Amino acid sequence: MDQVEPEANRARSSRAWFSASIEEFRRTDAETILGHIAKYAEYDVVLTQRNTWLAQIEILRSALSELNGDIFFEFTVPRLGRRIDVVLLIGATVFAIEFKVGEHDFKRAALDQVWDYALDLKNFHEASHAVFVAPILIATEARSVPLAIYRDDDGVYRPLTVTPTELPAAIAAIVERSQGSHRSDQLGDSTISSDPYNRRSSSIALCAALR
Hints:
6 strands
């Protein structure tokens, strides 16, 4: 795998500690990606956090093996004062992904957390008004549960609970369901990277075009 700096990350979004196209992400080795994430960390990176990021990288590398789009690690949500583990931009859908590495259960607090992220992206980011937003909670040691997909009228999916092995199917199902919707026709050439939060919140930017 390549060990060069991903081109997208050279113009790094101020809101993400690592950003790249999914293609660049797949061909960049995990240690290089980890180095970029740790470089911008706002705290001392302990071994457990390092291993958590490595687990996320490997899970996503497998899940995104046949997809194109953009990926962001540790993406800031200014209004909530928190960071989303991973944001994906694939087609007409923004995915907000929260990892619980080592967890055996899908806890209610974690579900509420990832749903809050999705609602914030939808309601306080103008570029997200015309796209779908899908929150996904991954508990790496949980047992498989039936995949249930529900989408509300505002274009936000109900949180999906998946294991690492179920993640590819979950993403594929959401992408397929979102394709052909009238919302995708509204995207035009606009980009999330140049689109500010609305006047109710502080400005935010993503360093990639919404494909």
